[in-house]
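Appendix B. One record, verbatim.
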Amino acid sequence: MYARNVNTQDLNFAVSGKLWNRSLVMRDAETGSLWSHILGKAMAGPLEGAQLEILPATMTDWKTWKEQHPSTTVVKLSRTSKEYRLDFYEDPSLFVLGLSADLKTKAWPLDELMQKRVANDKIGNTSALIAFDPKSLTALAFNRHLTGRILTFQEKDGKMVDTDTGTTWNRLTGKAIRGDLSGQSLQPLPAIISAMKAWITFHPDTEGLSKASMEKARNTNFLRRRGRNRKNN
């Protein structure tokens, strides 16, 4: 998700019908510039080189979102797919949570997050918390810096707890729900869920991925694999 204001001008985007590295290309109506939807960057046209500000967003199912945000509103758009189901991640090793910060990029494979649901990490100068909810297969990133200190987190009895104060946190919202820091919230970081193959194509110098996992992703035809598996079902 991006802020659509560039140089004090609000832009309106649509699908261009073009592909770049087999990924969607957007077009803004105001200047006709073409934008990479993964990078948020204008690749051609009058605004070439311009960068959209990426905003934190959550990729999850409707039930989980509504439980955490009961007063939410929803934008109703025309369907581009019949359904979105969790079996989209039938091979989680092909997906990552990717983050760009401080001129660095880093990614965490979903299959590893399924095994380690809370990860304390660092990208550039940013101390990051990677949180994974196994029920909804939701992965999120937060800044561990809070009130002048860097917190360290762990999984304890199925809950996310910081080791500094023993406070319990909601991993889906980054809000402290029980303990000394109750009521405080971690700053969300603009991480995105991406197919690993697409992430390493657009971020070839990314950190956090093994050579073996990247090689597997490069050699996997993701769309053909999904279609074959659906047909078999």
